[in-house]
Amino acid sequence: MKRKDTPIEDITQPIKVENIILQIDILQSSKTILNPKTYIIHKCNHSCVEWAEYDQNKTKKINMLAIPLHFGFNRHTTNGYGIKNSITYYETPCGISIKTMKNMMHYLTTTRSKMTIDQFDFNSCVNPLAQFNVSRPIKFLDDISEGLEFRPITCVNSINKELPQKIKYIVSRQAVTGVNINVESNFLCGCDCTDNCEDKSKCACWQSTINGQSNIPDLEKNPNAGYNYRRLYKNVPTGIYECNKTCKCHSSCLNRVVQQPMSHNLQLFKTEKKGWGVRCLNDIARGTFICCYIGDILTETNATEQGKKYGDEYLADLDFIEVVEKCKEDYEENAFLSQQIKKPRKISKKNMNLLNKLTTQKSSQGRIQTTCYDKNLALNNTFQFLESRNLKHKYLTFSKRYYEPQKSVRYYYGSGDGVYTINAKTSGNIGRYFNHSCTPNLFVQNVFVDTQDLRFPWVSFFSERYIPAGTELTWNYGYEVGSIPGKVMTCYCDSDKCKRRLL
Ligand SMILES: C[S@@+](CC[C@H](N)C(=O)[O-])C[C@H]1O[C@@H](n2cnc3c(N)ncnc32)[C@H](O)[C@@H]1O
């Protein structure tokens, strides 16, 4: 088989980062091609991919989505009328054309390939070879993780000579005094799958994710909830249960995503107004796992103390239990009220604002919110009758008179420590540098991996949409403007829908 190197194609273009124009290169990275063989009729088996000698250790510096292109695959996009009509397909090392994730999964399984399905993507917008490059940085660091991440995380400052403050880079969370995370096998449920957990209906772990949805009665139970070929397209508010050390499946099964090493090339960079931020150096497909938010886990009391002493900008609450319970309460209250009203009307903007106030979750107190509070879920259409003043009143009376606060699930864990909090101020990973945006390109998902104790989910970031190389990665902090009296924080996210204030 012939090896050839394609030349680097330079598509130099200026990119706007917060009102400053940086000279930035989007390069078409070189592709060492092992061209697929010409197709001859055959039944696929291991020899179809064996000759391409895929070795994960050789992929450290290759963009995740470009890996197959270095080991015998080709990726083609046909020109349709507009991007929507174009079709992307892969040519396998043995010359077959594959157009869907399902068929690619089947191919990888049949040929016993060591490649994983998340190295493939069929979206025509995504360019696996796009690579972002800053031409003339003033300061540059090779790897802020100092070798702890699978891929180095570079750091550039194109604004001034400053370097980021030194922190202890860690890749797994650390329970601090007073916090006990029980990760013993006896406390985990696992599966017996031998099919890479492809059949969700037979995998006990997938079923935990799917059944968990019934914790919110109004939530439409999606039998396909959770990952789809290792991508997550929609937040599962009731949490995802990944396969774990007690499962019989392989460590690369389809239900193990956030427990894998970070697999995308990220860069820490100095922004003009938000301190440091993170960008991706290659195109990222929608639904891709980026990394977790990692730091020290503190009790509520310790977090409050440390927040007061050293600042609270890196504190993120593990409030999964409270938010799910809030959604459930809201549903039950709505259901009660809906019985009183026969004819729902369309809700006005004014009353929607009132509703938003009524249903606002526990004040964020300026801490980052790690659990998605799905307003649509809570504000289901039974709220429409709040249109009349009478009912606003009724709602409040109902809340006071009829609603007996039930004990939270947290109570049954016997923990008097309140909501635990991640503090990434002095120890943390790249997740601590993600800035806030009013139109973020990342969303957060709570995932249970090493423990199924609901107090300790892994706070994981996934891409909300396709993200082109060079884009800053951001999420929504869920701060509430006015939640800290006297504290005002201007938002510089620069999005068209920016609310101008964070706090
Ligand atoms: C979790 S840290 C993010 C990383 C931070 N930029 C750094 O340099 O380490 C949160 C802090 O970043 C800044 N920040 C994040 N998003 C921002 C935004 N949209 N506008 C203004 N400041 C922002 C604020 O100072 C906030 O307290």
TrEMBL record:
GO cellular component, one term: chromosome
GO BP annotations listed: heterochromatin organization; methylation; negative regulation of gene expression
One annotated GO molecular function: zinc ion binding
Keywords from the named record: Chromosome, Metal-binding, Methyltransferase, Nucleus, S-adenosyl-L-methionine, Transferase, Zinc
Pre-SET domain residues: 189-261
Superkingdom, taxonomy of origin: Eukaryota
Domain called SET: residue spans: 264-478
PROSITE patterns reported for this sequence: PRE_SET, SET
Intracellular or extracellular location(s): Chromosome; Nucleus
UniProt name for this protein: Histone-lysine N-methyltransferase
